[in-house]
Structures are given as C-alpha cells and as structure tokens.
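Hey,

The postdoc asked me to send both predictions to you directly instead of through the lab channel. I've kept everything plain text so nothing gets mangled by the mail client. Protein one:
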Amino acid sequence: MIGAQTKGTIMVLLSAIFFGLMPFFAIKTYAEGFDVSNLLFYRFSFAFVLIGLFCIYKKISPRINKKQFFLLLIAAFGGTMMTTYTLFLSYQYISSGLASTLHFVYPIITIVFAGIIYKEKFTAKKIIALVLSIIGIALLSVGGGAEINTIGVLWALVSGLFYAIYILCMANPELRKISPYSVALWVFGITALLFFGKCLFVDGIKTNPSAMSLFYILNLSFWSTFLSVVLFYKGMKYTGPGNASLLSTLEPLTGVMVGVFVFNDVMDLKSSLAILLILTSVFIVVQTNKKPKYRMLFRKLTPRRLRRA
C-alpha cells in the first residue's frame, strides 16, 4: 500500500509536469492568431466541459454551500483567472523560461502565509529546499542572451502572487469537504464565464479558430488544466500547501526536457546543475512525512453570516 504522503507527492509531481507543458501550448496557440483572453476563454470552457462530463459519469454532485461558493469565487477570480491572465501576458514580453522563473515566487509567499494561516512549520528543511529550488529555477533562465522586458517581468511576478492566493484558498478545510472534481467544475466554470465577459465587452470573441489552434487549446485544456489541477488539489490534501508549492518547482524542468527530447536542445552544464538542484529540493520535501494541520483560511475576512452557513 502506498502511504498518503507518497501518494500526494506523486500527484503533485505529475501535476507539475503537466503544468510545465502550458507555455508550449500557449505559444503555439498565439502563433495561430489568438489573444490572451480568447485563449483562456476557450481553455477553461473546454476544461469545464471535460470535468462536467467526468462528474456526470462518476455521479459526483456539484452541490456546495454559501461558504464554499465564496471561497471558490475567490479562487476562480483572484487565483485562476488573474494567475493565468497575467502569466500568459508575460509570455508575450519575455521568454517562457524567465516567466516561469519569476512566477515561482509563489512558493515563498505560500510558505510564509501557510505558516501564518495554517500554522505550517517553517522548518530548516523547507528553507533549504526553497533556496535550492530558487537557484535551480534561476539557472534555467539566466544566460539566454534575451533582453529582459520590465512589463513582462512585472506580469510574471504578479502571477506568482495570485497563484499563492489560489493555493492557500484551495487548501481551506471547507473546500476539503467536497470532491476535488466538484471544486474543479466550479472553478473552471466561473473562470470561463469571467473570460467570456471580458471577451464579450472588451476584446471580442474569436469565432473562427483554426484546426491547429483548437488542437493546441484542447491539449492545454486537458493536460495543463483539467488533469493538472485535479492532481494538484488531491495531492495537496496529503502534502499541505507549503510542501505542494515546493514540489511544484519540478514544473520548469518539463520545459527543459521537452526542449532536449523534442526540439533537440543541448543539455549544458548550467541546465544539468539546475535540474540537480531542483530534484534535490524535491527529495528534501519528500522526506518531510509529518502531515500539517490546517486552520480556516480567511476566517476573519469571511462575512460572519457566511461563517455560520
């Protein structure tokens, strides 16, 4: 039998790998003439259909209470919508490797706030793992010779802040009472509606996508949205938000490995050292077997009438 901690670790690592494919699909879709808002509208719409069909097949109830809806609304708007929008914007200004590096400020934010909100212990092992992962991720993007765009850098950093909010919100004990598939259904549905409104009133809705663009978006929706989100949320139940965010530093490695095996990029000493550092940080987190206890997220920020629901 696989232990709960090990099971959660495997789920989060697989989620990180699938998330790591996101820049590839996004950039390919941009080349087909899509803007950020339309890409994300189609992405979350397809993901909503996928998770909806799955819930029907598994007979999973989508029913939630008012408190859960309030938390999911925060997760969808402040987390999913704003995280993906700002990150995908950064891809238009800076390289995907640099964007991923800057986006990964979120483990720092998550660990700090997980300690404050959920009383997760900020141990020496976590500090070491965090430092190693940051150095490793930085090595993956530094030295490419590309000019750094300030706007792209800011968007990528903001995306990390929003994603930390998303992780902390999804770790709330109230949301852990319901199926992760129900959570994903609501988050994808709300996010799709938010981007639909933005496209309808601001950017315009793209009604004639090419076959190739639909191919890339469908892959983005399945691998880097539906499957990765469900795996991350389920894994986080066992590992805790701080450990989950550290394990997710495996995500940028996916882009490197795709470049080596698909596009025949050369694996230099810098990339090899970066991979070693990140894998070491993941190994350190895996050795942390004590499951953290949680407190209610945003308890003081939640309206009193919702807390009674």
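Protein two:
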Amino acid sequence: MTFDHKRYSGNATVLQSYMDEYIVECPKCKQAAFVRTDKPYQFKSGKLTCYNCHLVEKAIDRIRYNAVIKRTCPYCENTLEQCVPDNKQKSSSIIVHCPHCKLIRAFEPDNEEYILKYNDSGLNDPIFGLPLWLQCEVKGNVFWALNKRHLNEISDYVSSTLRERLTTDYTTMVEKLPNFLKDRKNRTAILKAVGKLLAK
C-alpha cells in the first residue's frame, strides 16, 4: 500500500461534531446497536436502538434522582448528611436522624438528577454507558471511534502524508488524536484495524 503525497482533506471538526451518534454493544443481544441524540451533550434526548433484537430504550426513562441532605442540625448545630439514592421520582422530603443529638426531622432534599447507566467503567458511550462497538487494540494501544463517520475521518487523516493545519481558531479532532495514531510507523497497522472495525 502506498501513501505518497496524499493530502488530508477533511473538515476542521472537533470531537463534539461526532457526538450525536454512538455505535455500541447491545446490552441484550451483544450485537451492534445505535445510541443517538438530537445534539451533543443533550443526553436526555438519547435513544438506544438495536436493529438485531429490536431493543429500544429512551434515556429519559432511565432518569433517576439522588435525594441529598446536607444541613446544619437546628438543635445541636452539627452537620447532617444523608443520601437516598436511585429514586425514580424527585423526593419532596426525607426523614433525617441526627447522629449527634438524636433529633428526628423531615428536610427538603436537593434532588440530583442523572441517567442510570449500564456501566460506569471502560470505554463506553456517555449516555447509556454501553461499550463502544468500534474499538480494538493496536500495538498495545486502544484504538476507538464513536461511529463510522468518526472512524472514516481518522482513517483519512492517518493515511495522509501531507497534514496541513486546517484552522488556527481552535484545535481540531485529528490534531488531538493520540500520538500512536499520528506515528507514520503505525500507519499500516492502524488502517488494517480500521478495515476490521468497518467489517464488524
């Protein structure tokens, strides 16, 4: 394979430009599924769709609340801290027992909202916490992409020998790629990995 004088011709995108779709591992059938959202970081609009087993989930249905109390006891003035986790609805009040003076009183909590994830560890999508489908190991490094558009942009950059800066206004997605992806000695191995991921 030859890469002589191939100029990178991609757009001056940032990673956020690709964060409206994630290809993930379906939690039910373990095949490729899609997590899509209206706009990057609008996680509540996220939707999981598997075309293999027909699983469909909406992020809004997985919203939970931690009811948190952090107050000063009105009787002994010591700090009161309590958390009632994983509530499907907001709590209007929770009963708190002061461990210092034994006062028992209802307080209005702060309801901290979050989306219940399948997994919080590993390389996952940020909405449902499912493993990214497009990931593999290349020479001891984890190579990953959010979706095919993201993967193709990385592939275009890696296969190019002429890489001119596209804008001076900000740092683009390809400029922030890990060094092992930019290293020309890894080019063939990375493009081979791209082919395998596209064939999954």
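Summary for protein two, as requested: The mean pLDDT is 93.

Thanks,
C.
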